[in-house]
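Hey team,

Filing this mostly as a record. A colleague (T.K.) asked me to run one chain through the structure pipeline before their review meeting, and I want the input and output archived in the tracker in case anyone asks later how it was produced. No errors, nothing strange. Just documentation.

Input sequence:
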Amino acid sequence: MLFIRTVIIITILLQTNSLCIAQKTRDYLPASFAAQNRLQKIAPLFPVIEALYSNHAAKNHFPGYSFGIVLDGQLVFTGNGGYLDIATKQPVTSQSMFRIASMSKSFTAMAIVHLRDDGKLRLDDPVEKYIPALKEQRLTSDAPLITIRDLLTHSGGFPQDDPWGDRQLADTEEELLALIKKGLHFSTVTGLQYEYSNLGFAMLGYIIHQVSGKPYSEYIADHIWKPLGMNQAEWEYSNVPAASLAKGHRWINNNWIDEPLLHDGIFGAMGGMISSVSSFSKYMALHMQAWPASNATETGPVKRSSIREMQQPQRFSSLNPQYRYADGRLCPMVTAYGYGLRWSKDCVGRTTVGHSGGLPGFGSNWVIAPDYGIGVVFFANVTYASTAIINAQVLDTLIRGAGLEPRVLPASNVLKDAQSRLLALLPDWNNAASSSLFADNFFDDYPLANLKEDARKIFDAAGKIISIGEMIPENQLRGSCTLQCEKGRIQIFFTLTPENPAKIQEYRIRGVGL
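Output structure:
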């Protein structure tokens, strides 16, 4: 296969005025997270990543593919291989435009959230408010009304419809309404469990039109693509220059055959978007920019809080106790669905967010690890291309291979103040009961005599204090610190109350290595 490689090295990450989180939120990040050496750490892995994608593409008969790595909101490495069209042998580039299938769903979800933020709808509105034909349609008489939130989280009670829904892409709004009016079948009661529904997202596309007065495609282009500078994004394939458009293929009987592209229709809201890796990376940056929560000025087309809301696990999907990473290590994984996004957390607490896409002729996946500020995207032009597994392997390789650490938020001033005041009382706890540092419950739950005895034993065993570590927060009101001593370490943990001023309500101390 012809292989074309493009490498983009961003040498000054912190001086960009784009959506890069390094600039917008660096005051809220530790120096190690925002520093340029993160790029230096992952750069040696680029040849490894390139080979992983190339080998996977060859093994799985991808006619063409394109991938990208996004670090701290910047596209730092791209690679491409094969052809846009087997017949013409037009090579793939990072500007080549692939149909990204169900990766489109989060754009539809973001448009709904954007309308919610503008006061145009509520997520708990019944869908029948906007689609009257759905009225009285439910599995059981005691089933609740289907809400917009149910559609966003695949909880409407409709059956999984991947093969069927994939072929409805070009249906019109009139055909969607006619389908609903005939009566729909339900597989489960609304609001009880996750079941993937393309039909539900087609309904969301229709709701966007009803509420905004614009077709979903136009609304998303105006309110998401254009503000982000996504210049290589389309819904209708005939609007894409032939030299840039990836043609769909199917591998069958040891040969590739053409998979005809479908025109844009109402089901495009669930899977019709067309984009390049270069443009899509700007959308990934938007999702990265939402973290961490901060007081920084809003710069995106959608509020950061709304993006974080989209990424939260809203509906449990599965628990895989036998999940293994590519290197064979066992690491159970739990997955859930947010608003047009998949959410996962593994055995060590690593959270990832993204989505796959699959249609006749195409397969795609994007995934970010928000706490690590890194993500990957992969497009291919063969039917239901396997992209999620390799992306999981690549992301894991980047994080572990480069030794990237998750973002650690700085301790709040209230935590640091409580730490200083608490340490001043230890180990003797003199005048502790009369101080204003402790909550009403504290000495009832922790008798003062016991506190003194435990602290004195640990401090005597540890010896002289050599250094006091910084407060490591779990959140703004809970954290721990470590005292390095002559003979070992002392770890102290406490939780503060919500009152003003915040007071210590819970406390633990233990010796390590003593």
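Quick notes for T.K.: The chain has a mean pLDDT of 93. The first helix runs from residue 21 to 24.
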